[in-house]
Amino acid sequence: MEVRVSAKPRMGQSTVYEVVVEGEGSGRCSKRWDDFEELYDSLELRYAEAVKDVPFPRYSTRKDQKKSAAVEDNRRHLESLLHKLLSHPSLGQDADLAAFLQLTRAPAPSRRPGDPSDTPAEELRSRPGPTPFTVAGKGGGGGGGLDEADEAEDEHGGLDEAD
User: Fold this and answer.
1) Using an 8 Å Cβ cutoff, are 73 and 35 in contact?
2) For residues 107 and 71, what is the distance between their CA atoms, to the nearest angstrom?
3) What Cα–Cα distance (Å) separates residue 35 from each residue in 7, 17, 39, 89, 105?
4) Which of 7, 12, 91, 100 has its CA 20 to 30 A from that of 21?
5) Known InterPro entries for this protein (predicted)?
6) Strand pairing partners for 20?
7) CATH of the structural domain 2-101, one choice from 3.40.50.800, 3.30.1520.10, 3.30.70.270, 1.10.20.10
């Protein structure tokens, strides 16, 4: 998979990194350095051992060098990080990474009927838990009340105050 990152420095604001991924899956997105840190933290929580193989790069600042040189260093670091993440056997298959990069993947090969992995429960057990990238309503804006399952239970014989 080929990964290209270009940097778009903006006067008085954070640099925006344009990411283009081509190959088996393709995608295009614009992110800031903080977005990459957040993704890495999410991966680190779920793949602690695997992430040790792919350390997060140090942020270059203008204190270290001229702004244009710092921006170029950060761009190269992020491009290298993404290449390592995508080529890693377990991290490269992560759904959050694919969502972060807005990847579109070729359809998975079809399975044979009766294959044990056809059952939804088996598929769910093999997936990592919720993360900031897979939970709807990140930031506290989601309904916060009852979910559909709770509402259905209330309608169909859940506990009433009259019981």
Assistant:
1) no
2) 36
3) 14, 10, 6, 22, 22
4) 12
5) PX_dom (IPR001683), PX_dom_sf (IPR036871)
6) 4, 28
7) 3.30.1520.10
